[in-house]
Every structure is written in C-alpha cells, then in structure tokens.
Design a protein that fits this description.
Blueprint lengths: L9 E6 L10 H7 L5 E7 L5 E2 L5 E2 L3 E2 L9 E6 L4 H4 L3 H12 L4 E4 L1 H8 L13 H5 L15 E4 L2 E4 L4 H11 L5 H13 L4
Parallel strand pairs: 1-2, 1-6, 2-5, 6-7, 7-9
Antiparallel strand pairs: 3-4, 8-9
Helix pairs in contact: 1-6, 6-7
C-alpha cells in the first residue's frame, strides 16, 4: 500500500498586541483553521500572553525574532485594538516590511490600518480604514490620494478594512487565500452579513 505524504500546512499568522480586538479577525481565523491546507499561529513582540479587549488571553506561538523563514507563510492578519496606539510598534513595522517585500499578503483592520499608514506602507497602496482624518493625524502618512471610503479594500497584496467590516474582512481573506469557490464564499458572506432569518 502506497504511503501518502502529510499535507504541508501553510501558516497564517495572527499578529497580536495587548488589548487586541478579538472580534475583528474571529470570522476569518475560525474558518481558516478548519482548512486542511492552513493553520493559524499567533505572533507578537514577545512570548507574554496577549489579553484581548474582551479579556481573552492568547498564548503566543512565535516572537518576531523567531520568525525568519517566510517560505511557509501564507498571510499575516493584524486585528485592531488599543495596543497599536499605546505600545512601541517599530519592531512590528520591521517584520511587516519583510513580509510585504516578500509579496506575502498582509490583512489589517481598524487601528491596525493606522499602524500601516504610520509607517508609510499605504502611501502608494489603495486602502481604507475608520476615517481619513485619523490617518491624517499620523505625521508620516502621505496616502490621502489613494484612500477609499469603503468597508474593505485590497491592493498590492494589502487588505485593509474599517472597524465595522469583520465579515467583509473575512470574505476578502478567504478569496485571497483561495479557500473556497467564489460561489461558496458568496453564500458564506450572505449568510453572516444578512442573517439566517430575513
């Protein structure tokens, strides 16, 4: 009997800060982790558990310094939360630049989009976020001309979404990762966006 080789799972990294917004990536990571070809892992600046805004304590699989081989990385997801404005994010920016330079998708929602804008990652990338005015408060942000008022925007391997767009965020992530057919994703979106009873 011929032996089958175990499927090599690609990793999707959930990049966490303290007080991360647990609901914003929940739809996405729950479905990703059900797929045979993907596994969700957490990453942060250190190994200290990160407590979400809802009080959930997440253990950390990798630190930024641990993760150098990007060959098995499918995407990084940056949920919003209070930590993006309350903690030093320079080391995270260095890691995200490495991922972007490797043409690996980056998905950010809510205040994580402001983090991307703060470091110039969105200056020439069509993007969205909670409000343009919030981006304009970032001294090094120069992306006004490519800001779009929308639930979610994808451009140049970067997904951005506003804080009310958890369903749209997940929908777009599913399409980028090619997890299901377009028809299946359309059905998923309609179900979770509009409800079981209409």
């Amino acid at each position: 009997m011929e032996e089958t080789t175990p499927l090599q799972q690609k990793e999707v990294l959930l990049l966490l800060t303290n007080q991360w917004a647990d609901w914003e990536a929940a739809y996405a990571i729950a479905s990703i982790n059900l797929m045979d070809q993907y596994v969700v892992k957490t990453i942060a600046v250190d190994h200290e558990p990160k407590v979400s805004m809802g009080g959930l304590k997440a253990t950390i699989d990798y630190t930024l310094n641990d993760y150098h081989d990007l060959n098995n990385l499918a995407m990084i997801i940056l949920p919003g939360g209070l930590g993006w404005n309350e903690e030093s994010t320079d080391d995270i920016a260095t890691f995200v630049k490495m991922v972007i330079d490797a043409n690996i998708p980056v998905a950010a929602i809510c205040s994580a989009t402001l983090f991307l804008g703060r470091y110039g990652f969105l200056d020439e990338v069509k993007h969205t976020g909670d409000e343009l005015e919030l981006f304009q408060k970032e001294p090094l942000y120069h992306g006004e001309n490519v800001y779009i008022s929308a639930q979610v925007v994808t451009d140049q391997n970067i997904i951005t979404a506003n804080e009310t767009a958890a369903v749209e965020f997940a929908d777009t992530i599913f399409r980028v990762l090619k997890m299901y057919t377009d028809e299946q994703i359309d059905g998923w979106f309609h179900y979770f966006k509009h409800g079981m009873v209409q």
